[in-house]
Amino acid sequence: MDTKNATLLTKFVLTGLTHQQEWQIPLFMVFLVIYLITIVGNLGLTALICNEPHLHTPMYLFLGSLAFTDAWISSTVTPKMLVNFFIKSKRISLSECMMQFFSFSFSASTECFLLAAMAYDRYVAICNPLIYQMTMTNRLCIQLLVSSFVCGLIHSAFHVLFLLRLTFCNSYIIHHFYCDIMPLFKISCTDPSVNVLMVFISSGSIQVFTILIVLVSYTLVLFTILKRKSVQGIRKAFSTCGAHLLSVSLYYGPLLFMYVRPGSTQADDQDMMDSLFYTVIIPLLNPIIYSLRNKKVIDSLVKMLKRNV
After folding, report:
1. Per the similarity annotation, which family is this (predicted)?
2. Which of 138, 161, 182, 238 is most buried (most C-beta within 10 Å)?
3. What is the pLDDT of residues 176-220, one digit of tens each?
4. What pTM value is reported for the model?
């Protein structure tokens, strides 16, 4: 389209999850409860790990960072979605849209690297337990954490810079409940082919790289476990890795559908359901998965409650 004679748009309207008025209040209540539980669970877990010195080990530092990132993802998307249930004008400016996508992309990319770092930590703990303390030091843990956040920051900034080359004049309606990158491509009056290619390459590379680390780590863990004759040792190893494996499976499934599958530039209802699961449900489940299966976390929580109550 010739953008010289077109009116360039700087404000958009998010369609949200539903147009049916009778569903507005029930959905608002459901997502409000989910959001409150998510924030309390994730930030509570982060605070617990920060305040308990005996939890200042690599495994729990990774877990606390993961919980903080989950709270960030949910806070990037859910508050705006909750407000839009009750206002007719669901407008969002271009700058707000860019900031929301940047925040979402940053936290999502960071979580990919954190999950890979956690898999490496479990590999060292199970396959080389005698040298675990010397290998996985707190210094190395901090370096991995900082690297995860820096890589997430670079990745999100890269996509936002490429978004700045686009102009919007085809439509002001974004068929989504938050500003995701694919719906923005759809309403761009600038050819987004380069951006689509960059998303496919960069997001695909990050996912392939981090998934390979997880697969290699747990393949080596599996071989180590099978060599052991102790049933108790096998149970302990599976208990240690089970929560992380479940979290990885839940996380990467919808992410692959959203950004790597062919034809993902169309923001249809299936895309929104994938996004909803990824941005709202998974941050709710992660603290439950890790906390309920971790006796040390439960014991620390009980002790903290006894001290304060």
Report:
1. Belongs to the G-protein coupled receptor 1 family.
2. 182
3. 888 888 888 888 888 888 988 988 888 888 988 998 998 898 888
4. 0.87
